[in-house]
Design a protein that fits this description.
The chain is an alpha/beta fold. The protein is built from 11 helices and 14 strands.
Length: about 400
């Protein structure tokens, strides 16, 4: 039987999850105590084996790849690891034929990793098409965002870059299979940012028709793996040649000496097998020790994606009901009650012109949330109890009423 939320909290003692209400689960979840032990083990292995530690480090990296593969339900794609998603995204972008196909299609709702990099490419002449995410999820049962992406793809398009869950309001982007099909028709690539899906919303490469797609994500948020644990999933038959390529991409041939480095006959640079095609260079393996331990912990606790989604939806619905019961002035704090929470990811959003101020005052009451512009985001996690959620809602009401009273006095 799966561990209950209340019982789970004891495994996070170093993050003090019982002493404060951590509603930043969509950004940075607490790490279970096993992660601390794993970090110490990484240090001990380095001390014992010195440079020979890399054999063990590569074994741990394979465990991390296996963990991400399970979350993606991906039977045969390759998993390249990276310290952050940006280094993986720019390797992907560097492999695209942008001279022949100088057009990239994306949305206006992408996280800054993609948004900023595409802004910079646009400044250097690459055509960037940003379809609006808008307010509506679906039209005639189809994903509106996906439909707009499909319409924007043409034979000049090198790639489409889109999130599976939007980071501002947690909306699930429906119809990615249609986007994949449209890309395949014109020979464009598809990159899906699945960061807000992993361990929060079931994500299956096969069921979603994404066998030919690239998928990027990481463990900093819902996976509880902390920093330094990101991945790029790419198709098994991928032949792209990233321009930004690390020396690990030719690992296995270096010991053969000059002239045996796998260089192509045409004087080009050859790439290693499997995940090495998008490999980087020397990295800090401590993060992988932590990740492997946390993946094992989740399995021991019965915390598979389906169970985590069940917990998350229950928590978000409890938060939503609590916010609605506050009956606050919608001009001060508004929640879209028409939005179906089952079509949202792992956090609840409310709109308020004073999101930053409210967030700061909540912190003073021991409730941790965050905001993006006018959007206050509250993301629970499996170790947050129902009583803590109720306490957070009460604190929110107290803060908003206090701000209204202050505004009235000043007026």
């Amino acid at each position: 039987m799966a561990t209950t939320t209340a019982a789970l909290a004891r495994h996070y003692s170093r993050f003090q999850v019982s002493d404060r209400v951590l509603l930043t689960g969509h950004s940075h979840q607490a790490w279970p105590d096993v992660a601390f032990s794993a970090q110490k083990q990484a240090w001990l292995d380095a001390a014992e084996f010195v440079d020979d530690k890399w054999g063990r480090a590569f074994e741990v990296a394979d465990e991390v790849r296996a963990g991400f593969r399970r979350l993606l339900e991906d039977p045969d794609g390759h998993i390249a690891l990276g310290q952050n998603t940006h280094e993986l995204v720019i390797r992907f972008l560097s492999a695209l034929p942008l001279r022949e196909r100088p057009r990239l299609v994306t949305t206006d709702g992408e996280f800054h990793t993609i948004r900023r990099q595409l802004d910079r490419l646009e400044a250097d002449g690459i055509e960037i098409v940003r379809v609006p995410t808008g307010a509506d999820d679906t039209a005639n049962g189809r994903g509106v965002v996906a439909e707009r992406l499909v319409d924007a793809v043409d034979d000049r398009t090198a790639a489409v870059l889109v999130s599976s869950v939007l980071f501002r309001d947690a909306r699930i982007v429906e119809g990615l299979d249609e986007v994949a099909a449209a890309c395949a028709c014109v020979g464009a690539e598809l990159l899906v940012d699945a960061y807000h899906s992993l361990n929060a919303v079931p994500f299956s490469v096969v069921e979603m028709g994404l066998e030919g797609a690239f998928v990027v994500g990481g463990g900093y948020k819902y996976c509880q793996l902390g920093e330094g644990n990101c991945f790029l999933r790419f198709p098994r038959d991928c032949g792209l040649r990233p321009v930004l390529t690390g020396w690990f991409a030719e690992f296995g041939t270096l010991s053969e000496g000059p002239g045996a480095d796998g260089s192509a006959a045409d004087g080009g640079v050859a790439y290693g097998e499997g995940h090495l095609r998008f490999a980087g260079s020397t990295y800090d393996p401590v993060s992988h020790y932590r990740a492997a331990a946390v993946f094992a912990f989740f399995r021991e606790q019965g915390l598979n994606v389906e169970r985590l989604r069940e917990i998350s939806l229950s928590q978000i619905r409890r938060l939503a009901a609590g916010v609605d019961a506050l009956d606050l002035d919608p001009g001060v704090l508004y929640r879209d009650r028409a939005a179906r929470l089952s079509r949202r990811g792992g956090f609840l959003t409310v709109e308020t012109p004073r999101a930053g101020e409210i967030c700061c005052k909540l912190r003073g009451l021991g409730v941790y949330a965050d905001f993006r512009g006018r959007v206050l985001r509250m993301g629970p996690a499996p170790y947050v109890t129902g009583e803590q959620l109720d306490r957070a809602v009460a604190a929110l009401g107290e803060v908003v009423v206090g701000l209204e009273s202050t505004q009235t006095v000043q007026a």
